[in-house]
């Protein structure tokens, strides 16, 4: 009887241990690839076996989208834009990159259900096969072998090798100064002369009017 109880106790403990250690979150690419051609589409699929009304997409430990108690959606004002689908009934959540580039290879994607998480990253390559991954510190500058392989002639494919180009400071545009013609100078002088003559005329009229008033006032006194 005791041995039977001990057997049942061990079975319960073992069953609880299995349920605790069993992976509940799985994150994979939809096609199983780990390397993608630049400008292609990458779809990440997160499957949560026992979905409990909570999940979050993280990109480099920054929350990008989440589901909580039936409300799902992306977080605003993020440097990268992705497309999301949320199937809470099936526990399947997709993140899609419509046009992958080399900057995406430096990212770590995480699917988290609040208790467990799974991570994934991938490589990005050109048609020549240059890989860029999140674990690689290789620069985009061409190597000696890259330069030697760029030969011309029939049957040889030329591949553009990306270069790291430092930003060049651009001087502000200056408005060109239009030279003043002789005609414009003469016209300016003429306008100035007219204004001056008008001022002299006004002054003369005021002076004459003042003299006229003085004369009238003297006649009245006499």
Keywords for this structure?
222 residues; alpha+beta; 5-stranded antiparallel β-sheet; 4-stranded antiparallel β-sheet; 25% strand; rod-shaped; disordered N terminus
Q: How would you summarize this macromolecular structure in one to three sentences?
A:
The chain has 222 residues and is of the alpha+beta class.
By CATH, the architecture of the domain at 23-146 is named Sandwich
Please trace the helix and strand order, writing H or E for each element: HEEEEEEEEEEEEHH
How do the strands line up in the largest sheet?
6-5-4-9-10
Task: Extract low-pLDDT stretches.
Answer: 1-20, 134-166
Report the mean per-residue pLDDT as an integer. Answer: 75
Could you give a short account of the major beta sheet? Answer: 5 strands, antiparallel
Content of β-strand: 25-35%
N/C terminus separation:
154 Å
Which geometry do the CA atoms define? rod-shaped
Structural class label: alpha+beta
Number of distinct beta strands: 12
Q: Helical stretch count?
A: 3
Radius of gyration: 41 Å
CATH topology of the domain at 23-146: Immunoglobulin-like
| Highest-level CATH class of the domain at 23-146 | Mainly Beta
Q: What is the H level of CATH, i.e. the homologous superfamily of the domain at 23-146?
A: Immunoglobulins
- Helix proportion of residues, in percent? 25-40%
């Amino acid at each position: 009887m005791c041995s039977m109880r001990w057997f049942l106790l061990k079975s319960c403990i073992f069953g609880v241990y299995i349920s605790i250690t069993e992976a509940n979150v799985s994150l994979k690419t939809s096609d199983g690839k780990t390397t993608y051609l630049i400008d292609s589409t990458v779809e990440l699929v997160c499957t949560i076996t026992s979905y409990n009304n909570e999940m979050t997409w993280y990109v480099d430990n920054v929350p990008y989208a989440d589901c909580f108690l039936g409300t799902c959606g992306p977080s605003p004002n993020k440097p990268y834009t992705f497309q999301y689908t949320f199937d809470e009934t099936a526990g399947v959540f997709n993140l899609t990159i419509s046009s992958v580039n080399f900057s995406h290879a430096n990212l770590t994607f995480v699917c988290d259900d609040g208790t467990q998480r799974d991570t994934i990253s991938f490589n990005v390559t050109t048609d020549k096969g240059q890989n860029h991954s999140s674990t690689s510190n290789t620069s985009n500058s061409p190597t000696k072998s890259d330069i030697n392989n760029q030969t011309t002639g029939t049957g040889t494919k030329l591949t553009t090798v990306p270069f790291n180009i430092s930003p060049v400071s651009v001087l502000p545009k200056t408005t060109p100064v239009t030279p003043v013609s002789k005609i414009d100078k003469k016209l300016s002088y003429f306008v100035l002369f007219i204004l001056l003559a008008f001022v002299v005329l006004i002054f003369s009229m005021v002076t004459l009017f003042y003299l006229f008033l003085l004369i009238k006032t003297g006649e009245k006194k006499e």
